[in-house]
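On clarity, I found the account of how folds are encoded harder to follow than it need be. Since the whole study asks how a given chain folds, the encoding of that fold should be made plain. For illustration, here is how one protein appears when written out as sequence plus structure tokens:

:::
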Amino acid sequence: MIDFDGKTRVVGIGSALVDLLSHQDDDFVRTLGSDKGGMTLVDGEFIDRALTAMDSDPSMVPGGSACNTIVGLGRLGTPSRFIGKLGDDKYGREFEQGLRGNRVEPVFARSQTPTGRVLSLITPDAQRTMFTYLGASAELAPVDIRKSDLNDAAIVYLEGYLLFNADLTLRCVQAAKEVGAKVCLDLASYTVVRAAGDMLKELVHDYVDILLANEDEAREYTGLEDEGEMLAALASEVEIAALKVGARGSMIAAKGDVTVVPPAGEGEVIDTTGAGDLWASGFVRGLLSGRTIADSGRIASLCGWEVCRVVGAQIPDEGWQRILTNS
């Protein structure tokens, strides 16, 4: 197991994006000019016009890949902090309040640019169509990452989307190492892996301790097709590597041993949004509490399953109660 030198805090760094969730019919999605189920980058005015056209206000929760994981850790009782960039507006204030309500300490740089938002429209068939305005989140810069905010971190958790900003990513991992924290990187998307290229492999080799990926990301990173070979390649330069294989569970490699973790539940999947993010919450929680790899993977599977039972990346209170009871 990894030695965390007695520390228990996780500090996440990533995009601060307010999730605006609304149930709408197919016709409404078509009026916005998007294919159902897709993700379109838009400006803030587009989202404002869409909100005006709705019959009811959307629900609002803090979002973004790393943020989802950190919120999950907060709900699991792990000391948690999130670093990002917000606008000085109502969405930024709602975001910060939402983190505090989920037991996460917010650390935000501020911008004159509005807070980033993702308008997520859920149609009756449970498909989600997303319109994303990055806003202030895209302005997070190396100067915003202060060592003082990482000093008590056992793990610095990074989302792969940060790799689009090479200077920012390098600042994050260097600061983590300077304070003695482990670095956990979730590759986030095969398109991120493809765009990052050799820079990503150098980063993993030099700084990453825990590497998380799904099949598509691992295939892009390693150039391999066999899952066992992909996992071995991922694990060759880190202490722990996890390969998430969806409904089949996960495989985790540590110190030459491979642990196969089955899925936590069976039944109807409502929405897979955030499944990988919340899987990471459970896995990191297990590691920090001294659990075995198998036990950490089991907690991860519980979290991944519970978020698939609801729309969006926020597990409700009853879901967290089931996780805590069974972990």
Q: What stands out?
A: Residues 30 and 309 are 26 Å apart (CA to CA). The longest strand covers residues 80-87. The chain has a mean pLDDT of 93. Residues 9-16+63-116+135-326 form a domain with the UDP-N-acetylmuramoyl-L-alanine:D-glutamate ligase fold (CATH 3.40.1190.20).
